[in-house]
Amino acid sequence: MRFLPRGSVVCFAVTNRTLPLEMRLTPDLDWIPIEYAVKPDESSDWRGFEPSTADPEIRAQIKAREDIRRKIEVPALVERAVAFGRMHGVDAVFAVLEGQTMIRMALPVAEGLGAPLYSLIWDPLSWWLLANKVDPENSRIALAQFDETVRRSRACAVASWVMAEEYQSRYQVRCVPLVQAQPADVAQSPDPALRTATDLVLGMAGQFYAASEWENLVEALDAVGWTIAGRQVRVLVLGRSRPVREVSPERLDFRGWKEQAEVVRILSEEADVLYCPYPFAPELEEVARYSFPSKLTLYFAAGRPVIFHGPDYSSPARYLGRFEAAMLCVDPGGAGVVDAMARCAGDPDLYRLLAHRAQERFVAHFTNERICSSFYEFLGFSNAPSALAALTPAPAYDAAGQDRVVMPQTSGPDGGPVGPADAQRAQAEEERLAALRARDAGLLHVAELEKALEVSRLRVIHEQRTAAELRGERDQLAVRLALALDRMRSTAATRDHFGRHIVALEQLLAETREREQLLAASANAPEAETAPERRAARDREQALLERVGELEAAIEAERSEARAREQALLERVGCLESAMAEGGAQTAALVAENTKLVDTLAAAVERETCHLKRISTLESNSLPQFKEYEKQIARLIVTEERLQIELGSARQQLAVARTSVAALEGEVAGLMELMRAPAA
């Protein structure tokens, strides 16, 4: 908020009930109007029971509590936030999408104010739901609300470059990385070498959320006796909590929580190598893939080499690998970290290179000036306002290409000016930095080419899919064409067959006419002359009659076969018409049945709507009574605990009384014996 002009921000703060309701901002931000509201409890670990418990009644109670938060408590917060925004004339909404409550509030508040929504995402929602043990149904609802909120945001600020790329592709919304940064003046420039010849101090800051990786490292250090390259290994820890696995005090220096500038100074002055573990657990894969650890910002500012211990698919591993800014250990075991520490201790050039790379990364991506530029890019401005010109990020190199990063200097042996050997080392460092700059520029160019290649690959995949669809259509057309050709061939064969019969009949007709002409000629000739010819003609006629009979029999056979085929086709057509009629009847029945079902569903929906309205009315009416019941239950629990204490006290008094009665009975028995003794 320090990047925005004074008077441009108001805040509706939904805070955890464990925090003070009226918190104070630092003096430079005390101009921001704030209204505080208590956030509903987002954990489903209720009275020690988890949603996964086998008791259906407990699961139902846990789900009912989450339903009450979603349906009653959050809408009340939305109404308050909208009223607060209208009172201050809000024209844009900025929301951190962390937890169910803020995800349920963000979009309704923006819609209630008619303002665009700008979202900030630090971690994937799946991690939050897993950590707070939210039941499956409400988890699905929250994830769907998260997707809808991100999709309808004007822009999203995200935790890493990987998250920006993948969320922008998934939700079609503009995403800008907004990684935690520090003021440029907190950066340290220590001597890029190990501090002593006897110790190797491994520094770590922040939370121990990667507990298994830390335990693996401790086991690996135990295996080598906490000695690497002849040096005794010690661990320096800065944070609110101690490591989950304790280490002996002579090997672990736990300092507790410190201000971040103090953390940078301590790590720079007292640590040799900085350790960043990240989870390998499968259930935390999405967190590792998209989130970015804030401790890396402090490590880069400290100017010491970094060892990253996490999966290769994680966001920090991809960033560090791209710029070769750390030693990467992508195996869950701790042996790789021990080996990386040994390489840093045994290779001064590698140690110096990694230290310089850390400083370069801090200047390039993790200063307040850089995050200011990213924040205004997130809001849609190309440049920060002129009032904030002092925060405009300076380039890492000047116009002449000279390095702007101040590299550590060393003095001569007598504490005076540097000598020729030192000048040669400085010259070598400058040449190394020039090579690094050229290499980094090449890496950036390669990254751009890889991005263009990915776009081309996606385009090729799309074209291949289109070509596959066209090939499918072409194959279907080819099948249809083949069937049509078969039908045409069958028709042509039938036509040719009957054509041959017609030619034969025409020939027979011609021969018959020729025979008639011969008979007519022979009728006029003498009988003796024409007798042989008549016999030949009768033979020819008999042969022709036999041929005609054969042809007529063949034609009749063909006609019978054609009639049989026609009859078969008619029967097939009749079967198909019957099937179609039956199918039409079934379709009509199904349509009627579906119509009835639709009417029934509409009636059920209407009844359910009325039922939900009644439930909503009952919930709104019963909320005060429900809260009163909760108060009464709390009072009854307190009363029950007090009665239990009083009952315990009464039982103790009863036990004492019974002891006293037993003692008195003993005394009475003794007195009775004494009284009977004189009488005897």
Description:
This protein is α/β, with parallel strands linked by helices and 680 residues long. Helix content is 63%, strand content 9%. The protein has 15 helices and 13 strands. It has helices at 56-87, 100-113, 125-131, 136-151, 161-171, 211-223, 260-270, 285-290, 295-302, 315-323, 335-346, 348-365, 368-379, 420-524, 527-679, and strands spanning 11-15, 34-38, 93-96, 117-121, 155-158, 175-177, 199-205, 227-228, 231-238, 252-256, 273-277, 306-309, 327-329. The strands form three sheets. Strands 7, 8, 9, 10, 11, 12 and 13 form a seven-stranded mixed sheet that branches. A four-stranded parallel sheet has the order 3-4-5-6, with helices on both faces. A two-stranded parallel sheet has the order 1-2. The longest helix is centred in the last third of the chain and has 153 residues, at 527-679.
Keywords for this structure?
15 helices, alpha/beta, 680 residues, four-stranded parallel sheet, elongated, seven-stranded mixed sheet
